[in-house]
Design brief:
Layout: E1 6-11, H1 15-24, E2 31-36, H2 39-43, E3 53-56, H3 65-75, E4 80-85, H4 90-99, E5 103-106, H5 111-129, E6 142-143, E7 149-151, E8 157-159, H6 162-172, E9 179-180, H7 181-187, H8 197-213, E10 221-223, E11 227-229
Parallel strand pairs: 1-2, 1-3, 3-4, 4-5
Antiparallel strand pairs: 6-7, 7-8, 9-11, 10-11
Length: about 230
């Protein structure tokens, strides 16, 4: 099977850190990594070089990493964005996600964790590039207008708690997309780095048990190593 190359940009003004990050991503060979010292340097070469994933520092000379993320979301909406920064306050992380980041990792980051994060983003890109499935009818299930009730394909209702409502609203707005546990934590109003993800597992377990007890077909699937998906 042919492996699709993954084009990665590292945007870091500190040359030694930039080279270290690029060296960490030197394997596998299908990862093609380029380095840039500023947002402007990257944007100036977007048309010349393909881009799948960008790893960026927040504190850049000129345009900040937050500004760069917002620009990339406009000109390359499908690109994977990973922010790598010493700014670890909750408000900084939330600003990062609001700016368009898929992941926000604090420095210093373990090399294995960085590679794992890049692999997760690369898998998302591969799913987006997969041939489209035959067009099917829209699912008959969904949330009520106020979001407090889930209706399955047979019209059976499942009343929701506030957290269940937020959780399902977030996933149904992204039908067919494997949504990461970190982004779900943010949607639930939590800090993704302090959040106890066992609480998310308990939330899902209780929701599934309640649906089973009430005879409601809940099309919620776990995606190993990523999070959850509501099939489209």
């Amino acid at each position: 099977m042919t492996i699709r190359p993954c084009h990665i940009a590292v945007v870091e003004d500190h040359e030694a850190l930039r080279e270290m990050t690029m060296a960490t991503l030197a394997d596998p060979p299908a990862w093609l990594v380029r380095g840039y010292g500023s947002a402007e340097a990257l944007l100036g070469e977007l048309e010349r070089h393909p881009l799948d994933i960008v790893i960026l520092d927040v504190n850049l000379p000129g345009a900040s990493g937050f500004s760069l993320a917002r620009t990339l979301r406009q000109v390359a909406p499908d690109v994977g964005i990973l922010m790598l920064t010493v700014r670890g306050k909750v408000e900084d992380k939330l600003l990062g996600y609001d700016s368009g980041a898929d992941l926000y990792l604090p420095k210093p980051v373990d090399g294995n964790e960085l590679r794992a994060a890049v692999r997760a983003l690369a898998r998302r890109l591969q799913r987006q590039d997969a041939p489209p499935a035959p067009e099917a009818a829209a699912p008959a299930w969904g949330l009520s207008a106020d979001g407090w009730t889930f209706m399955d394909g047979q019209g059976k209702p499942l009343p929701l708690t506030a957290q269940e409502r937020t959780f399902l609203q977030y996933l149904t707005a992204r039908l067919g997309e494997a949504v990461s546990r970190e982004s779900i934590a943010v949607a639930l109003g939590e800090d993704p780095y302090e959040y106890d993800y066992h609480r998310l597992e308990v939330l899902v377990s209780r929701l599934r048990r309640k649906a089973l007890e009430q005879g409601v077909d809940l099309p919620l699937r776990a995606v190993r190593g990523v999070g959850y998906v509501m099939p489209g």
